[in-house]
Amino acid sequence: MPKREGTTIAGRRDPKTRVKPTLDEIAERANTSRSTVSRAFSRPDLLNPKTVAQILAIAEEIGYRPNNMARALSTGRTGNIGLLVPDIANPFFPPLIKAIQSQADALGLCLFLGSSGESGARENTLFERLAGQTDGIILASTRLSEAQVRTHAARHPITLINRDMVGLPRVLIDTQAAVMEAVGFLAENGHRHIAYLSGPKESWSNQQRMEAATEACRRTEIRLSIIPLSEPSFEGGETAAEQAVAAGVTAILAFDDLTAQGAHARLSALGVAIPRDISLIGCDDALPAMTYPALSTLSGLSQEAGRHALKLLCDAIEHRDGSQDMKVVLGARFILRDTAGPAPSEPRADPIPVNDRNR
Amino acid sequence: MPKREGTTIAGRRDPKTRVKPTLDEIAERANTSRSTVSRAFSRPDLLNPKTVAQILAIAEEIGYRPNNMARALSTGRTGNIGLLVPDIANPFFPPLIKAIQSQADALGLCLFLGSSGESGARENTLFERLAGQTDGIILASTRLSEAQVRTHAARHPITLINRDMVGLPRVLIDTQAAVMEAVGFLAENGHRHIAYLSGPKESWSNQQRMEAATEACRRTEIRLSIIPLSEPSFEGGETAAEQAVAAGVTAILAFDDLTAQGAHARLSALGVAIPRDISLIGCDDALPAMTYPALSTLSGLSQEAGRHALKLLCDAIEHRDGSQDMKVVLGARFILRDTAGPAPSEPRADPIPVNDRNR
DNA sequence: AAGCTATTTGCAACCGATTGCATAAGTCAA
DNA sequence: TTGACTTATGCAATCGGTTGCAAATAGCTT
C-alpha cells in the first residue's frame, strides 16, 4: 500500500485530506457518485445537462485533472505514442520529430522519444520499455532485423518509416529515382568516376540508394567506388571524403546531408574546391539552405513522412484486427544547388574541350 | 468494465485466456500468490531464493512484462520524465535532447518530448498533459512567465534550463562573458558599428546576450543597433540581416547559430562577402563545423546542460521536500572561426593602415 | 391512477500492480 | 515437546479511474 498524504476512512481515502483532487472528491462535493462524475467527462450525453454543468464547475474550481494512468489501466488506451530514431542529432530527424510531435499534440496524444544511437540492442530495449505505455510506436529508419520488427509488431501496433516490410504500415521516401537523376546529371556533366559514401548496412534507405547508384552508373558507364562510412556522422563523412579523393573521383554522392557536410569540410581543408574540383551531392535536404555554398541534395520530405506515419499508426491502433497492408511512398527529387557541376576536366564555359569526352 | 480478450471467472480474469501475461498468470503457474510474484521483482531479498528463481523462470518463459501504468498507479512513481523545448528543429536543441535522452535511458527512465513552437500557451497545455504521467519535467528555454512557471513548480518537480528563477533547480549557460569577448574582438579589429539580432523577448538567454552586448559596446564605444528578429529561425535571420546591412554595420552578432546561418545565406545572396565586408558571429555552437566557412560563435554546452539538468531533476524528485536552491552555471566562450575578422576599412595584411584606428 | 417507456443515476467489479499486517512455516534452545 | 524468534508467504485494501447492469426517477398515455 503506498504511503502518501491523506488519512484512510471506510472505503477510499478521505477526500478532504487529499492533495490531488480525484473523482471521489468531486463526487462528494457534488453529492453524487464516482460513476456519474466519470461520465460527466467521458459520456456527458448520458447525463442530465445540469448535473454535468455542476460537476464541471466543481472540477474547475478545485483544479481537477484526470489521472491518465488510472484511465489507461482501465481502458487499455494510454493516449501516448512512441517514436524511435537512430540519432536525434542527425539533422534528418528533427523536422520529422517535429512534424510528428505537432500532429500528435493536435490529436491530444503525448509523444515518447527514443534515440537508439544507431544500436539495434538499445532500440530493442527502448521498444520494450515504451510498448507498455504507448498505444503504438513509430520506428524511423529502424536498425532492427526484419524478424525483430515482426516480433514486436505481433504484440504492439507499429508503423515504419523508411523500411519496407510487407504487411506492416510503412512510409517510404523513395530516393531511387532521385539518385538516378543525380547520376544522370553527373554523367551529362562529364563525370566518369564517382563515389558513393555508404551508410549503415541495416538502413533501407542506404540499400535503396546504393542499388540505384549502382544501376545508374552501369547504364551511364560511370565507374562507381563504394566507400563505406565508419558511421553516419559528420566525422564519418570527413574520413570517407579523404578516401574518395584518394580514389580519384570527380564527384561524391553521400549517404545523407550530414555526411556530405563532413565531406565538404574535409575537402575544403584539403584545398579541394567544390564544385570546381569535386562535385558533392547529399541526401535528405536536411540542412536546406543552411550551408554555404548551398548543398545539392535529394529532397527530404521528412515532414510529410512524419505526418503520414502518425496517420497510419492511428489507423493501425483503431482497427487492430485489420492487418491491412498500408504503404505510402513519397518520391524524392534531385535538387541542384551550388555544390555540383561539370567535371574538372570539362571547363564550364570553355568552347574548346580539352579532354575527349568519350575517353 | 473494459471489453477485452479473456473470459471472467470468480475474482480476476482467467489467466489462461489472457493475452498479455500478468502477475496473476505467473502466480497461478508458480502455485503461489500475486504478492509473492510482485516481490520476486521488487523485493527479492524478502523471498526464498528458490521461489524467486522459479518465478523469474516462469516470467521469462511466458514473456511477462510488468505493466508500468499499474505500477505507477500504485506507487505514485511513473519512471517517466518530460522535456519541453520551444522548437525541436532549432539546432541548439537536438544535442541537448540527445544528452538527456541518453542519460534518462541509462537510468531506466522514459522521455516525453514536447515542442511548444515558441508558444507559451502550447507549452502550458503540454505541461498539463505531461504532469500527470511524469515524475518531473525539464523546461528548456521556457517561454512561460515566471508566475506560470512557479504555479507549475508548486505541483510538480521542475528543472529549468536557461532560465534563472530563485528557488528552482536550474542550469544556466552564461554567455555574457563570451559576448563581451566577442565584442572585444570586434573592437580590436576596427569595428565601430555592429548589430545584435535579438531573439524572443521571453528568452532569458536573449536578455543576457543583449545586456552583455549593450554593456560591452558602451565600454568599447561601439555603436550598437539592436534588430529584433521576427522569429528565431533561419528566415528570421535572413530578414534581419537585410536590415543590418541597411543600417550599415560591419559586424553582426546573432541571437543563435540558426539565425546566423539565415543571415549568412541572405548576405551571400546580396553579394556581401563574409568576413571581408561583414563579420558574422553566432551563438550556441549548434552547427559546430557544419558550415562553410566555419561560423564563429559562442560555445554551446547544450549537452553538458542537458546532463546537469537531468541530474538536478532526479534530485528534485528524490527529496521533494527540499526546496533547495540548486543552480548550475556553465560558462561559454567565444570561438573564433572563419566568419569574423577585421572591419572592411581595415585591410587584414596591409602593412599601411588606410584608416585611423582610433578615429 | 395505473402502466409503460425513456432518462438519469448508482452499485460494484474490474484494470494490474504494491504493500501493511497477519499468519504459516522453519530454527533453535531449553 | 514447547515457547520464542526468524523467515517466507498470503490476504486484502488501495491507487484512480471505467463501465455493464440494475434501480430509481421522470414523462406520457389512456
List keywords for this structure.
homodimer; 359 residues; alpha/beta; 434 Repressor (Amino-terminal Domain); Rossmann fold; 3 domains; 6-stranded parallel β-sheet; 4-stranded parallel β-sheet; 12 helices; 42% helix; disordered N terminus; disordered C terminus; DNA-binding
What does it look like?
With 359 residues, the first copy, chain A, is α/β, with parallel strands linked by helices. Chain A folds into three domains: 52 residues, lambda repressor-like DNA-binding domains (434 Repressor (Amino-terminal Domain), Orthogonal Bundle); 125 residues, Rossmann fold (3-Layer(aba) Sandwich), CATH 3.40.50; 125 residues, Response regulator (Rossmann fold, 3-Layer(aba) Sandwich), CATH 3.40.50.2300. Helix content of chain A is 42%, strand content 15%. Chain A has twelve helices and twelve strands. Chain A has a six-stranded parallel β-sheet with strand order 2-1-3-4-5-11, sandwiched between helices. In chain A, strands 7-6-8-9 form a four-stranded parallel β-sheet, sandwiched between helices. A two-stranded antiparallel ribbon of chain A has the order 10-12. In chain A, strand 1, helix 5 and strand 2 form a beta-alpha-beta unit. In chain A, helix 1 crosses helix 3 and helix 10 packs across helix 11. The radius of gyration of chain A is 27 Å and the shape is elongated. At the A-B interface, helix 4, helix 5, strand 2, helix 6 and helix 11 of A face helix 4, helix 5, strand 2, helix 6 and helix 11 of B. The structure holds a DNA duplex (30 and 30 nucleotides).
